[in-house]
Amino acid sequence: MRPDTPAENVDHTAEAARLERTAGRYPEDAEALLLQAAAHLELAGDRPAATTLYDRLLSSSSTSASDGPESLESPHLVRALKASNLWEYGHEAEARAIIEGIRAAAPRDPAPWVIVAESLESHDELEAAQETFTEGVTLLLTDAAEPPHSAHPLLFGRHRVRRMLGAAHDDWDVLADTLHSSPVSLDELHDPKRVWSLGSDNPAELAAEISRLRAELGAYREELSRPFPVAVLHWPAGELAELVAAYPFLAVEYPSHEEHLATIEASLRELAASGTPNLGIVTGTVPSYEAFAASELASPGESELLPQYATTLAARGRAVAWPPERGAECWCGSGRGYGGCHGA
């Protein structure tokens, strides 16, 4: 996810450099880390440097493709971000070509669709933006029993653009209204007349607009915070057995694998009940944990190191949101649905 902290409050260039160094230390997480670095460079105003990072990721993917599957988890996402960035500093033709390529490829991930559609929208290409949002929604949600959370921005973005075009509500717009949880309705948030109220001399109109903006900003910040959850550490059975065999003192922390799994679920439910948002699970491996301990000049047998390891994995983009979406497999790796496993 792209950071939204203003440049005057953060040295985005320095943060991008730090993320690049971290990507060098953890190549398995390079994609997520370099995407964050590119976002910081965009906020710093160094869009050519951001494009260089996007090209670096795409180049590494092309190189590995000759030896096997692409190394990037989300190549279409990287291309979409590159197109959006290129258009912002004058490379419109190249950006349009990339956007058309993404639409033709029809990715199964909502994020590239949202990014390219919003890029078209931000450059007043409203009809093209509506078409792109609609293509993504139709492809990903036509047969979906319930839209996953990651697809909500597709529906909301489509609703917004159609409102600006003056289009009548259709079934997708009704679904967007149903999924929207803010006290301010989507119709009100996406009302084209709002822009005129910002220049009003009427205090009541300005107060109403401030209320709407606060609601919109709250929802936006909630989305930004989702990739950085409070994370609980999970060890698969084989990894936990290896860990305890190598570091027997940790047996106090992990009496058995079954108890470990039960403790994870209980901890997450307790955190959720206390109002803690954006919970997640990170999965550990013994080699990764030992490397982390070495970087901290600590012994892997120290139980105090475990929460730090979990936090580091989450910061590297390794967290999976909890609870799983309806119908998804359980986080424990059993292969059963969450509702029939630890979610029962």
Would you mind describing this structure in some detail?
The chain is mainly alpha-helical and 344 residues long. The chain folds into three domains: 173 residues, Tetratricopeptide repeat domain (Serine Threonine Protein Phosphatase 5, Tetratricopeptide repeat, Alpha Horseshoe), CATH 1.25.40; 42 residues; 111 residues, no CATH class. Helix 6 runs antiparallel to helix 7.
Summarize this, please?
By secondary structure, this protein is mainly alpha-helical. It is 60% helix and 3% strand.
- Would you identify the CATH H-level superfamily of the largest domain? Tetratricopeptide repeat domain
Q: Specify the overall morphology.
A: globular
Q: What's the Cα radius of gyration?
A: 22 Å
Alpha-beta classification: mainly alpha
Please give the count of helices. 16
**Spatial ordering of strands, largest sheet:** 1-2-3
Please report which band the strand proportion falls in: under 5%, 5-15%, 15-25%, 25-35%, 35-45% or over 45%: under 5%
N-to-C series of helices and strands: HHHHHHHHHHHHEHHEHHE
CATH topology of the largest domain: Serine Threonine Protein Phosphatase 5, Tetratricopeptide repeat
CATH C-level of the largest domain: Mainly Alpha
- Helix amount, in percent? 55-70%
Architecture (CATH level 2) name of the largest domain: Alpha Horseshoe
Helices and strands, with pairings:
Elements: H1 12-25, H2 30-43, H3 47-65, H4 75-88, H5 92-105, H6 110-122, H7 126-141, H8 152-165, H9 171-179, H10 186-189, H11 194-197, H12 203-225, E1 230-234, H13 237-246, H14 257-273, E2 279-283, H15 286-295, H16 305-315, E3 320-321
Parallel strand pairs: 1-2
Antiparallel strand pairs: 2-3
Helix pairs in contact: 1-2, 2-3, 3-4, 4-5, 4-6, 6-7, 6-8, 7-8, 8-9
